[in-house]
Sequence to fold (388 residues):
Amino acid sequence: MPSTPPTPVQRVQIDAGAELRLVALEMFAENGYSGTSLQQIADAAGYSKSSVLYHFRSKEALFEAALTPAVAELDLFLESIVEKLTNDEHRSGFVEEFIDLLLEHRLAAHIIINQGQTLSDIPIIDQATGLIGRIGESFMSGLPTTQQRIRLGIALAGAAYVMVALRPSAVELDDLDEVREALIDVVTELITPL
Amino acid sequence: MPSTPPTPVQRVQIDAGAELRLVALEMFAENGYSGTSLQQIADAAGYSKSSVLYHFRSKEALFEAALTPAVAELDLFLESIVEKLTNDEHRSGFVEEFIDLLLEHRLAAHIIINQGQTLSDIPIIDQATGLIGRIGESFMSGLPTTQQRIRLGIALAGAAYVMVALRPSAVELDDLDEVREALIDVVTELITPL
DNA sequence: CCCTAACCTGACCGATCGGTCAGCGCCTGC
DNA sequence: GCAGGCGCTGACCGATCGGTCAGGTTAGGG
Fold:
């Protein structure tokens, strides 16, 4: 019998750091940053509080680690925006990508939207709101009337908030697809006259 | 010289309860419910923590007292809705009143929108979200397609969120009027096809 | 077989949390 | 002038907060 290969076996969930990041993301979204204690996170993940602080130097570091993937993708999205908006034909694609980005990182979006002002002194939150601001600016390069700015705000904030308001339990996969298309339609309709 | 009247004099701000309610509302909106301590509220209002707890039996009672006026007006608004919606001519008035209601109670709206899910176990929050839900239901009595529900959601949530996002410092009175009209226009445009 | 390093934990720390309580000064009606 | 209640306070309570630390356990390489 040949020697067994060097254990690439079942990697179900042995990465404690990633597991803690996920649990923390859910709880921060559900109960808020200051409303979630390290003890609660540790209990939910099946570790001790000390263990959480072994993997992450502080509560804020854990928060930052939990949000980092979403913010990184948001950053990539911003970089790709410039060419998207110069080519007029790609504008609808812009909306689609933005909605998909929000859907993929719903929990992170929930946190940034609902707690962004409160937690503005945490670096990654500051970075995220900065990115969002630059997306808005680059979109309406000639930021014309108040009415137009309000229109854009309602489109993006409304879409984000509707998505965020979806309770995780209420997410049937079919419905999610339907929601996705409806969001793309309505947002596209709102921003095309700009 | 006639006797001085029984001191109806300057009532600048001697009602400690009302003053505390106001300060608490601002701080709860700014830093969140669990992110605001009774000590911070007391300091900001110029009282001791004990004094706050003399006027309000608990932190939750103070929170409830701070939100009560807004929720009461929301309740009145819901009662007036039925006749507004049966008379087709008053539909635009509906939007106008709703926007004005949000503008008048911006801080309370901020709290209910951003912390409603988190604080769903507090009675007045439960009441407020219940009222909002009934407003939505009574508006789209025949809740038709997903697309139409999303449209309504974006209109109302977007408007509310745009308003909430206005930093208090950024509120010039002229701008506020401009924002009000823009909001009414866009929201009306969104919900008229329903 | 032992040494090391990674992982995890309970005990403990000072600070702060929401809340209680006894008592202070002051105004008012008798 | 005195009794009583209202507004307000500091001292204090147990619980919990985020965070530190010394030590226990385990797996792997020499």
Observations:
- Residues 16-191 of chain B form a domain with the Tetracycline Repressor; domain 2 fold (CATH 1.10.357.10).
- Confidence is low (pLDDT under 50) at residues 1-11 of chain B.
